[in-house]
Design goal:
The chain has 392 residues and is an alpha/beta fold. Helices cover 38% and strands 13% of the residues. 49% of the residues are buried.
Amino acid sequence: MYYIGAEEQQAVLKVLEKGDLCRYGPEDSTVSNFERDVEEKFNTKHALATNGGTSSLIVGLYAAGIGLGDEVIVPAYTWVATPASVVIANAVPVIAEIDNSLTIDPEDIEAKITPRTRAIMPVHMIGVPSNMSAIKAIADKHNLLVIEDSAQAIGASYKGKRLGTHGHIGCFSLQQSKIITTGEGGIVIADDQQYADRARMIHDGGNLWGISAHSDAFFPGMNFRMDEMRGAIASVQLTRLDGFIENMRIRKRKLRQAITDVDGIELRKLHDEEGDAATTMVFLLPTPDLASKFGERMSEYGVGAGPMYSHGNGDKHVYPGWEYILRKKTYHPNGLPYSHPSYGKIEYSDRMCPKTLDYLGRAICIGVHPEMTDEGIEKVSTAICSAANDIF
């Protein structure tokens, strides 16, 4: 996915020539400049650059005050960092089904709420926004926090508003496989000053320089800071973001048009087609067996494909692959947070979300790149049409 050009190289060389690699070294910090640019682009009051997407989730949870005795509802389809960050914050992840958008199912969110539920963590998977209207309505009804995991959808939107700005806190990843990248890196955004102060405290060794109107923003912190070289790359990459997304949207539209009349496939539901980052084209087959055969046929036509999930494949994007979550493993033998008496009995299993496994077992995902050629689009669409003709 990623693109690194001459501008990024020059920006890094400039930092190296100055010799100040920590964000607090130079007068004109690349990290601080990047944070201000994010605030402007996302129309948010506070942006904080971090050293990773997982770091951003941890910072967001700590900023929200999530901890022991709390439950956070997460989707069954997301990278394992999402539930792991909840455990790191000393809370328990509650795993909810996805729907045919491959994002969290609002109906199952409602079914999973208990008196211990403190937050919902929707994940905008492979570029597509979750159903934020329904999620926010549930959160308002039950007085819950919404922490958006936008790691795979930076720059996408829902009803004209950027993802990450619909909830109380938004978290992003700049890891190498993401839409824009610094190799490793992340962002946390919030409008609320209290959340912003707490986020800065946890991300910076407990250092707020003694300035905050919120007494609960002072506590021991960690170090999740972004360095100046990554800040330099991030600033350039941010200028490319909208162009990347527009290019992917153009290419995805062409691909969708090319397969619009193919019988037997069901396109992934989009809660907001205009807001889709367009990083992927996903379609579903009637059964997992047909999806497997369809993928084999596509491979024979030169396009590698297959179901997004098959039993036992160990994919850490799907909850059966979260072995240490399902086994409730933590770093300490006391077993916290799972052993805390406020929770009662917590049960996980690799069959607890059958709808999720069904959708992913029937789904085939095709990546869309900003520089995908018309020839590449034709190759993919021909493979899809040919496979459909062979099977149906």
